[in-house]
Structure formats: structure tokens, C-alpha cells
Amino acid sequence: MEDPKSLSNEESLRIITQMIQTAKGNLKGSSFYFLLWGWVGTLGNLGHFLLIQFSDIEYPSAIWLITVPAWIISLLYGYRQSAKEKVRTYSDTLIAWLWMGFSVCAVILIFSGRFNELIPATILMIAGLATFMTGLILKYKPLVYGGSSFWIFSAMALHVEPVYGLLISAVAIVVGYLIPGYILRSTI
Amino acid sequence: MIPDFKDLDPLLHSQLRLAIMSLLISVQSAEFVFIKEKTGATAGNLSVQIDKLMNAEYIEVTKSFKGKKPVTTCKITKKGIKAFEDYVNTLQGYIKK
Fold first, then answer.
1. CB-based contact, A8 to chain B, within 8 Å
2. Nearest-5° Cα angle at A69, A130 to B67
3. Between chains, do A12 and B18 touch, taking CB under 8 Å as contact?
4. What is the mean pLDDT of residues B43-72?
5. ipTM for this prediction
6. Tens digits of per-residue pLDDT, A53-77?
7. Within an 8 Å CB–CB cutoff, is residue B66 touching chain A?
8. pLDDT tens across A156-182, in order?
9. By the 8 A CB rule, do B53 and B17 touch?
């Protein structure tokens, strides 16, 4: 069956614009990751701080083992989402690889054994870059601002005693992940 | 043929095929059901138009399974992108005149 209608130039343009608008990147799903990692990051930093200050536990950084289940949840969620999605946009792929790159940087930093107390501030700096870029790709301002705020907090964290850097990181994650994450969720 | 006069690609100059191509140019790949939902076309008509675009090598069509459910995925090809760009350029030429 051929569609019989002959198209005018204006109609052609209207179809093109309308369809391109329709296919624009979706924000759905991203809020899940920001909320999950927002809470993991906030609790991890706060917990790490509290363990250093108020306990004599030998390895206070063990609190970061909470990232292991968070990773598993993220991977499972990502897998389930990709099975459900009916369309794959360039921005989805770009964001997925950006965070994959961030994870590689984070793993190198953590397991190099050379950064130690500088780890939270440094991770904050590269997480800022990834968040900032994600915000730009999705054209979602709260994430752009959140990501930029990470750089300010990171610079602050590098200027205080490392243990207080953890507190600054916790605040940064509330500002950069949790607030945009909740705004995102409430607008969908 | 009149010199300097470019015809609009007849394969793209159709409501549904143009809609399919405009959707596919903006995404990496899309499933049949997504295209059907966005264009509002019937499954029968959509399959026919997708076949035409596929035969012209403007799009690639892959059939796979998601669990037990068969899934048809469409993706624009380089040739399709070129054809779409030419179509838009020709259209712009007409409008400027």
C-alpha cells in the first residue's frame, strides 16, 4: 500500500521536525542511578567520617564495601532497562560510556594505593566532569550545576584536613546527585 | 530535465517513509513497535514502507529475540543518511526560491 497523499514542502518539513522532536533523548531511568549512587556516596562519606572520628575500627574505609551491592544493582537495573527499551539513542550510549570511563578512572585511583586520603576529593573532581557532561548531553540544567558544584567542593576538600574532606564530599553528593535526582524524578 | 532542478527523492517524498527516516536519523536504532507508536501507522502499512526503505538500502533491519518475543530493529544506513540529507537540502532549495 502506497500512501496516496502528495506532500507539500511545508508538510515534509513539519513531518521531519515533528519526528526529530519525538525521538529526542529521554531522561527516564537516569534518576535511578543518581538517587542510588547519591545515597551510596552520601552514606559512604558520612560513615567513613564517623568511623574515623568516633570509632577505633582498624579500616574505616571498609564502609566503601557498600559500593559492591550498588554496582550489582546498577548492572542488573541497566540490563533490565536495555531489555525493555524500544529505542536506543546516541545520547544513551554516550552517557553509558562516559560513566564506564569514570568507573575505570575511579578503580585506577582507588587501587593504585598512592592517593589514599586524596581519593574522595579526586573522585569528586572526575565525577563532577561526568555529571557535568551528562547534564549537557541531556540538556538538563540541574545536573550541569550539580556537576560544576563538584569542582568547587573538590577544591575545598583539597584544602582542608582529609577527614573533613569526607564531610565536604557528602555535602557535594547531596547537591550534585540527590537534589537533581529528586527533581528529575518528580518531573517525569 | 531542467538543469539546476533537483527532484525530491520519490522514495522519501511520502508521508510515512519520510516520518520513518526522520525518526531513524535522530536515534541509533529503534524497534518496529516504537516506530509504529510514534508514526501512528498501521503495522501492515509500516512493514511495506520499511521493506521499501530496506530494499533501497536506506535502512538496515535486524530480527532478533528478547526472551521469547521476536523483535524487529531498524537502523539508518550511511546511504540512508546521505539520501535524507540530500532530500532536506533539495527541500531547502525549493523553499528559498
1. no
2. 90
3. yes
4. 93
5. 0.82
6. 998 888 888 898 999 999 999 989 9
7. yes
8. 999 998 889 999 999 999 999 999 889
9. yes
Residue A28 has what pLDDT? 60
pLDDT tens digit string along A6-23? Answer: 678 888 888 998 888 776
Reduced to 3 states (helix: H, G, I; strand: E, B; else coil), residue A129 is: helix
Residue A151 cell numbers, joined = 569542582
Number of other CB atoms surrounding residue A58 within 10 Å: 6
Domain boundary assignment for chain B: 15-96
Question: Cell for A85?
Answer: 527499551
B30 touches chain A (CB under 8 A): yes
* A58 three-state secondary structure: coil
The Cα–Cα gap between A32 and A74 comes to 9
- Establish if A3 touches chain B: CB-CB under 8 angstroms: yes
Chain B from 7 to 26: CB within 8 A of any A CB = 8, 13-16, 18-19, 22-23, 25-26
Do B41 and B34 contact (CB within 8 A), yes or no?
no
For helices B32-39 and B15-26, give the axis angle rounded to 10 degrees.
120
Domain map (residue ranges) of chain A? 27-53+60-187
Give, as one character, the DSSP assignment of residue B52: H
How many whole angstroms separate alpha carbon A160 and alpha carbon A34?
27
pLDDT at B26: 87
Q: What's the CATH fold of domain B15-96?
A: Arc Repressor Mutant, subunit A (1.10.10)
Query: Between A96 and B47, whose confidence is greater?
Result: B47
